[in-house]
Amino acid sequence: MRRLIVFILCILLPAAAMAESTSYPSLPIGEAAPYAPVADAYSADGLSYDDGTMTVRIEQEVAYDTNIFYVYVTITDPSQIRTALAAPYPSKVTRNVAMLAEQNNAVLAINGDYFAYHNRGFVVRSGQLLRNNPTAGRDILIINEFGDMTILPSPTEESVAAFPNEIREAFSFGPALISNGEVLEYNYKLKTSCGYPTKAQRIAICQLDTLSYMIVVTEGPEQDEKAGLTIPELTELLVSKNVPLAYNLDGGSSCTIMFNGEKINAKGSKLRDVGDIIYFATLRPD
Predict the structure, then answer these.
(1) Angle 21-23-25 from CA coordinates, rounded to 5°
(2) What residues does each domain of the chain span?
């Protein structure tokens, strides 16, 4: 019996030591991610990444005569979903997403909500309240300290104040598309200027499950005169993917996916300068 116990321990202890050795602390909030992407974690085809603390998978299809890109991201710690500004608020300085991604050690980066160029909405970045002006025409997307997303459609000061968790990020663009698996009703004439009925390049960020996300980016008339999606078409696309929560971000030429130093969508088009990004970072210090 003793030999059997020793044999089992010899098997289990190395596994436990390995599990412990691959457990990393959360990243500090409010500054650039400290660790560069793990170079050999990117796949040879440039469409996936896996470093043991996060995974990325990029898929592509054609719908509505448009190239559609689906970016699936899973992380192991909420601190890995992050934001960065081109310059401290309220500066209106802009940088392109490639530059911001490199400066912040992003494994993957997308454009944000361009909030610095208007004065409405409720805005939080990296736990810091930057603007407290909830506006009915600007639905809010909140990311809390657990990495969970919540939508506040047609927000008020009361609905923001009643939010039960720490707000780490809050975006004020929209419109909100899907919440709790239900398509949201809205009068686009009262919402932010998102070109609701116009075929355009679109980008939406979605939460699929705990620490599991999907980003959908479409091309548009800039690439092909027949391409682009309206907001209802984007919503229909997300419904077909059974997305439980989805939020529209700044579209048009701002739409950018930066991955391993390359722009994945709308290749060949110029990188547009933006005021902020959403990005994902590794926990691995090597």
Answers:
(1) 125
(2) 2-280
Which residue has 């909420």 as its token pair? 78
Structure tokens at 207: 């939460």
Q: What is the pLDDT of residues 158-209, one digit of tens each?
A: 999 999 999 999 999 989 999 999 999 876 666 666 777 889 999 999 999 9
Q: State the DSSP string of 153-168.
A: SS--HHHHHT--S-EE
Query: Is the pTM higher than 0.70?
Result: yes
What values do phi and psi take at 119, rounded to 5? Answer: -120, 20
At 281, give phi and psi (nearest 5°): -135, 155
Alpha-carbon separation of residue 165 from 147, 150, 246 (angstroms): 11, 10, 20
Q: Which helix (H) or strand (E) holds 73?
A: strand 66-75
Asked if residue 277 lies in contact with residue 100, where contact means CB atoms within 8 angstroms, the answer is yes
CA distance 82 to 62: 29
- Contact between 47 and 257 under an 8 Å Cβ cutoff? The reply is no
- Higher-pLDDT residue of 286 and 57 is 57
* Cα(196)–Cα(174) distance, integer angstroms: 10
Q: What is the pLDDT of residues 73-108, one digit of tens each?
A: 999 999 999 999 999 999 999 999 999 999 999 999
Tokens encoding 161: 């104040």
- The DSSP secondary structure of 6-56, one letter per residue, reads HHHHHHHHHHHHHHHHT--PPPPSSS--SS---GGGB-TTSSEEE-SSEEE
CB–CB of 127/30 below 8 Å?
Answer: yes
Start-end of H helices in 104-226: 157-161
